[in-house]
Amino acid sequence: MSRTLSVHEAGLAVADPAAYSDEERLHEALTLLRRESPVHRVEAPGYNPFWAITKHADIMEIERDNKLFLSGQRTLLSTAEMDELQAQQRELGMELRTLVHMDDPQHRVVRAIGADWFRPKAMRAMQTRIDELARQYVDRMAELGGECDFVQQIAVHYPLYVILSLLGLPESDFSRMLQLTQELFGGQDEEMRRGESAEEQMNTVFEFFNYFNALTAARRENPTDDLASAIANAVVDGGPLSDTDTASYYVIVATAGHDTTSATISGGLHALLENPDQLRRLKDDPSLLPTATDEMIRWVTPVKEFMRTASADTEVRGVPIAKGESVLLSYPSANRDEDVFEDPFRFDVGRDPNRHLAFGFGVHYCLGAALARMEIQALYRELLPRLSSIELAGTPRWTSTTFVGGLKHLPIRYTLT
């Protein structure tokens, strides 16, 4: 990989949504930072300063020490304008407060509300339904006549159907949830975002809140056997969750619960197209599907970053971090770290071990990791035996984002049996 960026420019790329739609540029920047400035102060125009953390070991250490490095004060990389707006909403009690925004002890208590729905026993109970849905969407590919935009016509719908079925939402609301999710995570992408101002983008959150507040009222009046009822009727410290915390819980499950999986499914297929030897290897040996799934997750890394704020003066890799300063945990960088992964820029469906951090680490480890793996494996277990041929039918395009994203278009041409 030839060097065309300075270290300063590489740091700026971490805060540039467009860099995440250009994988070559992004990984050139992250590789340079890992080598020359793994704890790098970024002062990007329009953003409050932060430290970019790019080494796997440092990210694990920060995630492990969740008392020193807090999630609640600055959870995600946002513009200074958005940071200010969120601070105002926090004062009014109207902020989005999902699990990723919480610290212990509140995080531990609230996380437990949905934990049982994502344990192995619950996942085994869902296997039949997930397999049915995987078959339906591969059948859908066949119905499309051998050519489709795999992202928009397959990958975004299948995991959405799974997670919203788990919540117990009516199918008539699925398209609305998809649009709101794409607007929420695509707020930095010209094609996906609702508007250019912070206020316009925050309106997406308010629409989510309005929808889920109505759902909460309905489930409290008439409880049902689904995750939405478990959330609506949860008791914490002797009482129900606040309307804001309840709606926030729905938001994280309904959005991150499918968007990250769809990004991995589509990005995984693109990786197989770019590496036909690995596609043949996986088709010839389906027992590799579990390791292939984790390699897809590592390769795509749909969650690009989370932020932490130091609760006391400290240091990372010998670099002083003052109390109140923020660090950005770069997961795409960790998942290409040369100190952890042999030949990290090689897509290897049999990679083992695979110590990727795409699901995070420590107390904030992804609640839905097992479900995501199950969905990805189910779809490819159905697709690969029926796939006779496949090729690109146009130019893939990635979402501009600094938070969650992946491919937004993947035109393919294929033959299915």
Automatic annotation (TrEMBL):
**SUPFAM superfamilies from the xrefs?**
Cytochrome P450
This protein's record includes keyword Metal-binding: yes
Organism superkingdom: Bacteria
Q: For this UniProt record, give its keywords in alphabetical order, as a comma-separated list.
A: Heme, Iron, Metal-binding, Monooxygenase, Oxidoreductase
**The keyword Transit peptide is assigned to this record:** no
Family (UniProt): Belongs to the cytochrome P450 family.
Q: What is the protein name stated in its UniProt record?
A: Cytochrome P450
What species does this protein belong to? Answer: Actinocorallia aurantiaca
Q: What is the lineage of its organism?
A: Bacteria, Bacillati, Actinomycetota, Actinomycetes, Streptosporangiales
